[in-house]
Specification:
9 helices; alpha+beta; 3-stranded mixed β-sheet
């Protein structure tokens, strides 16, 4: 697991991995099903993530790891947490299970507030390993892991571990802070929760706000009826010409039978493409996440 820290460190910002993040959300729905994803409605609570200085080192680490395991709904998984000097924040040894050995950086012996964040990434690796869900590119697999942790209820801790001030530049994971904010905002829209109330890092709150903006725009893309006037006008011009402009999320294509058009666009929840006929106002159900979408095609 990547960790950036110390005075003068460089932390990447923006949305350079957004396409992979969206593909990761789609992959979770495809493999887990809509019901499987929605079973993760309860996020890891701040109380369960807390690891106080007064707690026994190994018993406290095991307690936090077990809380992450429960949040990610891995009832047949047991974790063993150990501490050692290392460059990474944490690593996990993947195998047949049910026991998984997680090594974490010695700094967590005393800097305990971020232990749960490190564990959430590594236990998300275990979840994906058990699901046999992986991308061909190892770098994209790390993006998938962070996305899964955040979308399924444990990864808000990874954003809360982000701190960038005069003394400390720290980020856990492979998503940028804004991308973590994006995934958490997508989760918040699905489950009606507000993870920002749990943040202890002011920078995490700001990154969540920046990430929430594109997540909200996903729900205002044409041909959804929630699209704004300018988006609707652009869509109407494109529809008359039968071709979407460069950069548009929607695409026009001929219907399988007849002279009409149909339009495909990403579902704002799972990013699976939805295809509907170009016939005015209608309601469509995403075949993957089963979200009902009001459209004006």
């Amino acid at each position: 697991m990547e960790k950036n820290g110390g005075r003068g460190g460089t932390i990447e910002h923006g949305f350079p991995h957004l396409a992979t993040v969206r593909a990761s959300i789609t992959a979770l729905y495809r493999l887990m099903s809509a019901d499987g994803v929605r079973a993760h409605a309860l996020s890891l609570s701040p109380a369960d993530a807390a690891f106080e200085a007064s707690d026994d080192l190994h018993l406290g680490a095991q307690r936090v790891a077990s809380a992450v395991v429960r949040t990610l709904r891995l009832p047949e998984v047991r974790t063993v947490v150990a501490f050692r000097p290392m460059a990474e924040a944490a690593v996990v040894e993947l195998g047949a299970g049910p026991d998984y050995f997680i090594e974490v950086n010695d700094r967590f012996r005393t800097h305990r507030r971020d232990l749960a964040a490190a564990l959430s990434h590594e236990i998300a690796h275990v979840l994906l390993h058990r699901l046999a869900l992986a991308f061909p590119d190892p770098a994209e697999n790390e993006i998938l892991t962070d996305t899964a942790a955040a979308y399924l209820g444990a990864g808000w801790l990874l954003l809360d571990a982000y701190r960038e001030d005069a003394l400390t530049h720290q980020r856990f994971g492979y998503l940028t802070p804004e991308e973590f904010g994006y995934v958490l905002a997508k989760r918040a829209a699905l489950f009606g929760e507000d993870p920002s109330i749990w943040f202890t890092s002011p920078q995490a709150y700001e990154a969540y706000a920046r990430g929430s903006a594109p997540a909200a725009r996903d729900h205002r893309r044409a041909p959804l009826t929630t699209a704004g006037p300018s988006a609707r006008r652009r869509y109407a011009r494109a529809r008359r010409g039968g071709a979407a402009p460069a950069g548009a999320a929607y695409r026009f294509e001929p219907e399988d039978s007849g002279p009409g058009l149909r339009v495909s666009f990403p579902c704002p929840v799972c990013e699976q493409r939805v295809r509907v006929p170009v016939r005015g106002r209608l309601r469509a159900r995403c075949g993957l996440c089963r979200t009902v979408l009001d459209c004006d095609t």
